[in-house]
Write a structure and sequence with these properties.
By secondary structure, the chain is of the alpha/beta class. Helices cover 48% and strands 13% of the residues. It has helices at residues 2-19, 23-33, 38-53, 55-63, 72-87, 92-102, 108-120, 128-132, 136-146, 149-156, 174-182, 200-206, 219-228, 270-273, 278-294, 316-322, 351-354, and strands at residues 190-193, 211-216, 234-236, 249-255, 297-307, 328-330, 340-341, 347-349, 359-366. Strands 1, 2, 3, 4, 5, 6, 7, 8 and 9 form a nine-stranded mixed beta sheet that branches. Strand 2, helix 13 (219-228) and strand 3 form a beta-alpha-beta unit. Helix 11 crosses helix 12 (200-206). The radius of gyration is 23 Å and the shape is elongated. Bound molecules: S-adenosylmethionine. The site of S-adenosylmethionine has 19 residues, from helix 12.
Length: 367
């Protein structure tokens, strides 16, 4: 019964908005407790993720026909209806009729009237931020840093991600798999993964036969590394003050905490959570982490810095910070994906080209 799928979706939207629940954690929990058929689970997922991503656009579609403040559940029912009509192109009799059924009783007349008008009216979007449903700061930021390609990137990050499973069954975006491979760890080498949780890349590194140590600052998340990569030496440690002997590693990976703007397809609510100051704030953290990481390298060792974001202050800004002087040779982009070279400033993946997360990568060899 798709009606139950819509009801589950409406409950999820309420909790995401009211309690700040994470869509990708809440939805599996709600689906786990439901008895929906597989087709309806798929539909509920599409409704929750899609309506969450397109919230700003849906509000625009609806607010043209609403003159008063709305209760949260009523607003979410209208968003859900507008999403089905405009983005899923569902026939109005299904999208409107069945959404009205799950709306709070006293508001059903209003929901019906507004959704019928949404179904009948055309739309003229006022700007890309509304049309593509992102906060203005993200649109402006990527426009500034990526130029006209930003629209393609923003459009692609409104689509559901491709799910890629590794040979060992672990689900990991290809961009992350390519970063782990690009560390190029060799059997017998000592490799440190300083920001390792939940351990996705550490598992790939360990499988090379290198001697890998994995660390993360968050104790809770260190447990995730232990369960994902049993047997790997793991510790809770701040990468700004690494607990390792200077000069003791052949390769060091800093898969840095970042603003995450490259991962918005996989995290439907993230665009509404990340604050505009995040790129600068996290770039400052990243500079500290890479500076500390360099000290751990043995002569000739390789530093690999990656960030799943697309801003210039992270990524290329960190390269600029590091690549002054002649301490390093910048390695070429790896051949394992459509990495776009940025000269001495590393390389990146753009989601609409690679069909992966947006990702930045820099590989430096200590001379
Ligand atoms: C992008 S995630 C790492 C993902 C991981 N490499 C993987 O592939 O599964 C960044 C990680 O950096 C950790 N982190 C943030 N600040 C840190 C610090 N100062 N030292 C060590 N880890 C830190 C976060 O807890 C988070 O787990």
């Amino acid at each position: 019964m798709t009606d139950s799928a819509r009801r589950l979706a409406l409950d999820a939207l309420d909790r995401i908005e009211r309690d700040g629940a994470y869509a990708n954690l809440l939805l599996p929990e709600l689906l786990g407790r439901s008895s929906l058929a597989p087709r309806d689970r798929h539909f509920a997922t599409e409704l929750v993720y899609g309506t969450t991503r397109m919230k700003r656009a849906c509000d625009f579609l609806v607010d043209r026909f609403v003159a008063r403040e709305l209760d949260l559940r009523v607003r979410n029912a209208l968003r859900l209806g507008a999403y089905q009509l405009h983005f899923l192109k569902m026939p109005p009799h299904a999208a409107v009729g069945e959404t009205v059924e799950i709306a709070p009783k006293p508001a059903r007349g209003l929901v019906n009237a507004v959704l019928r008008r949404v179904a009948d009216a055309g739309v003229e979007w006022p700007d890309d931020g509304t049309r593509l449903s992102y906060p203005d700061w993200i649109v402006d930021r990527l426009q500034r840093d990526l130029g006209e390609r930003s629209v393609d990137v923003l459009e692609r990050m409104n689509e559901a991600p491709r799910v890629t499973e590794r040979a060992d069954g672990y689900v990991q975006d290809l961009a992350s798999q390519w970063v782990a491979e690009a560390v190029d760890a060799q059997p017998g080498e000592r490799v440190a993964d300083l920001c390792a949780a939940p351990g996705g890349k550490a598992m790939v590194l360990a499988a090379t036969g290198a001697t890998v140590v994995a660390a993360d600052i968050r104790k809770g998340r260190v447990g995730l590394i232990r369960s994902n990569a049993p047997g790997l030496p793991v510790l809770a440690a701040d990468a700004a003050r690494p607990a390792f002997r200077p000069g003791s590693f052949h390769r060091v990976l800093v898969d840095a905490p970042c603003s995450g703007l490259g991962t918005l397809r996989r995290r439907p609510d993230a665009r509404w959570r990340i604050d505009a100051a995040a790129p600068e704030r996290l770039a400052a953290v990243q500079r500290t982490l890479v500076d500390a990481a360099v000290k751990l390298l043995a002569p000739g060792g390789t530093l690999v810095y990656s960030a799943c974001t697309l801003t210039d202050v992270e990524g290329p800004g960190i390269a600029e910070h590091l690549v002054s002087g002649d301490r390093f040779t910048v390695l070429d982009p790896p051949g394992n994906g459509p990495w776009e070279a940025m000269g001495t400033h590393g390389c990146r993946l753009l989601p609409h080209v690679s069909d992966t997360d947006g990702m930045y990568l820099l590989r430096l060899r200590l001379t």
